[in-house]
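User: I'm curious whether this sequence folds into something compact or stays loose and floppy. Could you predict its structure so I can see for myself?
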Amino acid sequence: MLLDVLSEAREDQERQGLPPSWRVLPHSAVAAGIDRGETYLVQLAGDPVGTFALESEDAAVWPGSDGPKAAYLHRLAVLPFHHGRGIGAFAVDWAARTAAARGCLLLRLDAVAANARLCSWYERLGFAPRGEVLLPGWQRASMRFEREV
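Assistant: Here's the prediction. I'll summarize afterward.
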């Protein structure tokens, strides 16, 4: 189910001419996130409508983060049919509350910097841009964002 949501969301970005937010993820990477209890499925009336991961570290995107304790939101995806219903914002708010309950002061994430629409959406949700980073093997830079929880 999770891979289907991620795949469909990625395909929708490509159909719109937007740079995809993530590579095609291998089953093993998704399974590992589930096994660690970091990956969540968002359901509406029992049907899967979205997914995201909430992780305790992200050394690749946020190297040397010695500041306040943070949680890292990854692979947020909502099925295209459910866009505009507040599901993504619900997931972000849930992640922020969960991070705060775990003693974190910040919620961090990254998005493809060339996806201006997505970056603007994160800013409307209260995230502040914290600079770009080019990850190994990627051709496009990611914009880092954070907000207090």
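Summary: The radius of gyration is 14 Å. Strands lie at 39-44, 47-55, 70-78, 106-112, 128-133, 142-148.
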